[in-house]
Amino acid sequence: MIARPHIRGDGHFKPLATTWTKRISAYPQPSTAVGQGFSDLQIAHWAGLHAPRGTSPEIMDKLAAAVDKAMHDQAFMELSDIADHTARIRDAVDVSLIVDADTGFGNALNTYQTVRTLERAGADSIQIEEQVSPKRCGHFSGKDDITTIEMIGKIKAAADARRDPDLLIMARTDACAVYGFEAALERAQLFSEAGADILFVEAVTTAEEMRALPARLKSPQLMNMVIGGKTPIFSAAELADLGYGIVLYANAALQGAVADMQKSLTVLRDTQRIDEDSGLVVSFAKRLVGKPQWDAMGKEIPVTPRVRISFRHSLLTSARQ
């Protein structure tokens, strides 16, 4: 589970601190979170490409969960959908898991239940935001926010709901687009005082605002790098120097997967074939979702046809009785 962040003397997040998580070893850059790709398999694929395991958190982003159902990120996903995705990702990878819980799926009471549900599903950190429902992607236009008082109630409910004291509550504000940068800063500070462990000021639009946030807010912060979005792109090293503790690349895996699929399918359409050594596909022999472990377990626990028949016979006999 993620442990409470260690904070430097100047109040900034300390990227090297081994207390950041029980799963993440000392890391010279801010923790880099990659948003979920098209499916839980995409997450397992991403984790397989990063070594050693456990050095970076993963974020279960409901945009990608929505894409699984051919939907946009406009509050079409339900809590049960997010909990199901969270549980499957937790089974697939051993990295710290940040789960995007949208607006908490209702008021403060709903937020309480949301945190309980997602904690049971395997979340290490849960993000709550203060948009009016139905909410939308932070880099879309047309957003609106609930009152600061109502959001503070949700944060307090989220903090009270957790059973594991190491579960982190992340509070996101979209107030930059609705009320302006200064209002977003004010809200973020109040969210921290209400019990948020990590702050996420979404969709800032200038480099000056990005530099100002760590200087003016002392809680650990996340910066979201949406490729093609409203926020200027900085490198992880640059954001570390500014004092950010987590850098989120929310759509990177998704956008990369779409580009690669379009490229592969275009070649298939035009040439009527794709070879394994084409550079367009991963090797069929490259297993990244634990198949060798399942094969080994199958050898240790053999199940013969006779055993299966006997088991089925036993079930039928019990049912008749």
Compose a concise summary of this entry:
This protein is α/β, with parallel strands linked by helices. The chain is built from twelve helices and eight strands. It has helices at residues 40-48, 62-68, 79-92, 108-121, 148-161, 175-178, 181-194, 207-216, 236-242, 252-271, 291-300, 305-320, and strands at residues 31-35, 58-60, 97-100, 125-129, 168-173, 198-201, 221-224, 246-249.
Quick check: average pLDDT?
78
Gross geometry: globular
Summarize the helix and strand pattern as letters: EHEHHEHEHEHHEHEHEHHH
State the strand order across the main sheet: 1-2-3-4-5-6-7-8
Output the CATH class name.
Alpha Beta
Largest sheet: 8 strands, parallel, barrel
At the fold tier of CATH, the topology name is TIM Barrel
List the defining traits of the structure above:
321 residues, alpha/beta, TIM Barrel, eight-stranded parallel barrel, globular
Task: Provide a descriptive summary of the structure in words.
The structure is a single chain. Helix 1 (40-48) packs parallel to helix 3, helix 3 packs parallel to helix 4 (108-121) and helix 5 runs parallel beside helix 7 (181-194). The protein contains twelve helices and eight strands. Helices cover 43% and strands 11% of the residues. It has one domain: Alpha-Beta Barrel (TIM Barrel), CATH 3.20.20.60.
SSE inventory with pairings:
Layout: E1 31-35, H1 40-48, E2 58-60, H2 62-68, H3 79-92, E3 97-100, H4 108-121, E4 125-129, H5 148-161, E5 168-173, H6 175-178, H7 181-194, E6 198-201, H8 207-216, E7 221-224, H9 236-242, E8 246-249, H10 252-271, H11 291-300, H12 305-320
